[in-house]
Fold Vitamin B12-dependent ribonucleotide reductase.
Amino acid sequence: MSETTRSDRKTQSSASSGTKVASSKPGLTSGLTIDRVFTTEGVHPYDEVTWESRDVVQTNWKTGETVFEQKGTEFPDFWSVNASTIVTTKYFRGAVGTDAREWSLKQLINRVVSKYRQSGEENGYFSTPADAETFEAELTWMLLHQFFSFNSPVWFNVGTQAPQQVSACFILSVDDSMDSILNWYKEEGFIFKGGSGAGLNLSRIRSSKELLSSGGTASGPVSFMRGADASAGTIKSGGATRRAAKMVVLDVDHPDIEEFIETKAREEDKIRALRDAGFDMDLGGKDIASVQYQNANNSVRVTDEFMKAVEDGTEFGLKARMDGRVIETVDARTLFGKIAQAAWECADPGLQYDDTINDWHTNPETGRITGSNPCSEYMSLDNSSCNLASLNLLKFLRDDDTFDAPLFAKAVELIITAMDISICFADFPTEKITQTTRDYRQLGIGYANLGALLMATGHGYDSEGGRAVAAAITSLMTGVAYRRSAELAGVVGPYNGYARNATAHKRVMRKHQAANDDLRTLSAFDADIQKLATDEWARVIKIGEESGYRNAQASLLAPTGTIGFMMDCDTTGIEPDFSLVKFKKLVGGGSMQIVNQTIPRALKKLGYTGETSEAIVEYIAENGHVVDAPGLKPEHYEVFDCAMGQRAIKPMGHVRMMAATQPFLSGAISKTVNLPESATVEDIAQVYSEGWKLGLKALAVYRDNCKVGQPLSDGKKKDEAKTDQAPAEQPVKIIERPVRKRLPKSRASRTTSFSVGGAEGYMTSGAHEDGELGEVFLKLGKQGSTLAGVMDAFSIAISVALQYGVPLQTYVEKFTNMKFEPAGLTDDPDVRMSQSIMDYVFRRLALDYLSFDERSELGIYTASERARQVETGSYLPPEPETDDASEADSLKTEPVAKSAETVEAPRVEAPAAKVETAKAAAPKSAHTTAELMESISGMSFDAPLCFTCGTKMRPSGSCYVCEGCGSTSGCS
């Protein structure tokens, strides 16, 4: 069946929502009627696609070691190599190399979906067996075609002999007793062992400034954090070589709050000192375990009272835990400054806005929301859990570039039904979590690919139009989820805690409805979505008034790291696109560099066709950005802004997008606001303050290079002299002092004139007889001016240090990518754009005085080398051919094989724009999109390396995810 025909029928059937018929049970109906929307009766979803056999081999590129191999796996031909690799390595169950091992996507989907159908039938969700069969077929079709995915624990556990754990997010609790504290350690350990993450609030534990009943002084929560941190660092989460995912929260009025704020910042000072002393303090380094508090994200829970005191510059009281009396007063603005200072130094703590969180709480009669999961998107009662699922938004974009809102609504109602069914059969790590989850049935539906959807439709991520689209989609998603929840309450009953909290739950529903009514649409694109959302919220209120609700929570925005790759999403969660160029693996081996597939579609939407589009795409392929792209209007630049690159989205752009969607979510948003290394403490304070004013529930920041344990690259180590035998005795330690190597009186030098962002200057560099750089002098500003004096002093300092043996590479690493004005275009063809004069100067020095290999490690190339890379896939000139070069070897140099057996079939194609996506062989030095962007732009990107395959990871919500193998830095 064609996509167009199926889409037409989908839209026609989208108006119905699943009818119900009478039942003998008082107040309840007999089950849901499930409509066929995606499937055709009598045709199995598997029979509609073409399947192919693939050999999945995964290697660590640094060591060359094969870390995984499974041959003969079966996937649809439109699934990418990345998606099939991640599913095979992460989700197939059974011992590798045995007949018990799963080998086909059909087996995986059948294992999961059949369990959902069985449980749905056993618990009375369906009106007839035919409805159960339709439910199974529809769910299978959507998973097969990558329209959505459940969270990872579902794929790990459902349908296996293991406990049927379906939740990825947990919130624990701890009281002021040793039994409770030791139980906290135990419960966290079991959750980490299962591969999930947990968070909790420590504010019930009395402070170190309070007395025990015995008369002694309490240890305080920070002291007990050490034990929990050590436990988390010992347990390999899910059996993998990655740290556990955990969140620790402390209320801002806790007397130990200053100690809590400074814990990780002080440890970061220790890390720097140990690193400088020669210890291995990189993430995963053998000596990093000697420092504390590295296994948790820390957040301060702030109140409106505190934030208003910060604005007014007044004092704020810290309260005893036992009786609530104020035992100390502090200056609120000073305390807030310490939070921002610590976050500037080490990215912790983040903020959680307590009053906003609890103002949207549907169960306040049961208890306040005090904690969150590790990524801060799940916020609910203590000792609870949440299972997640995320939709692929780009799948709902029609050929005419409109969003299929009715189809999206049908998908949401089916997915929410499945998610609620899973609670009926799920297992949980503790009895308390089991009880709370069964009583309140918290769900977390969300989405991925928002950034790609906005770009494809010509909306800038940081624009009013982009925010309106995101808000409308989020409102529709949550509205449909709660409408279906109300319908389910009429079929199988409301959640057990609903009667106690009915008034509060209905109040929150009206708050969501009011936010939707206040949403200002800017075009027909988002107006159509919002109109349907308005209808859905009206139905939520009406049906909920009659039946109540099946679920205390319905929606949130998760990182969607691994499952995002499983769905072949270009962007994860609420994130913008990472970059305009992508690193793509090919079926049968090899890789290529491609321009983001949504760019041609976006250009067509903006009115660019023919040669103009082709020229823009070629420019992006070579430069990685759109600045000065031939024929592209500057007012359209914002559509192509990304998380990384020449036009990286500003920090407040991320905050404003979060604020646009937050009123339409039951939970919160997993996202870290990244700031440049040059950001100040005041910049971070402003982001935290604006997050509160704009109504966010939580906010975390990360300033580039603020942490030692975030390796930018592993680099090539210099060859070291090795001895076969240890010395018989230790010699007396001799302290060697550096010797200055002065330049001869007469030496070779070169003078370079330059212009950066319109500011002109001169650079004179002198070299030793062996060609090694020995001095640099910069001429900027008028003689006698402050600028000229500062540059003279800087030049002398650099020159003396070079003569004392400081390698030029060290200065290039430190000063390239430094951002300040003047910045922009230069008159140097090898360095077309510069972020500052320092950035330009040291790039030019690297090009003049470093070898090709040394520059390659730093990602710095000449214009001719970059052009050669685009044409041939290599920065180096081609080697002369030899007679004994085999035909097979020569074929390996072809950029891309054109046979259908080698190049994967595309997914649903965009409308023909007659623009070929620029492709080239990917640089051998790149193994992920992050590394590819570094090689193109010459800008380093702050992210850890994957423990499994050694590639550079990229942000996903509050965590990092590996594009090569799907591993994450902590979140499931």
Remarks:
- The longest helix spans residues 464-492.
- Confidence is low (pLDDT under 50) at residues 1-25, 237-242, 710-735, 881-916.
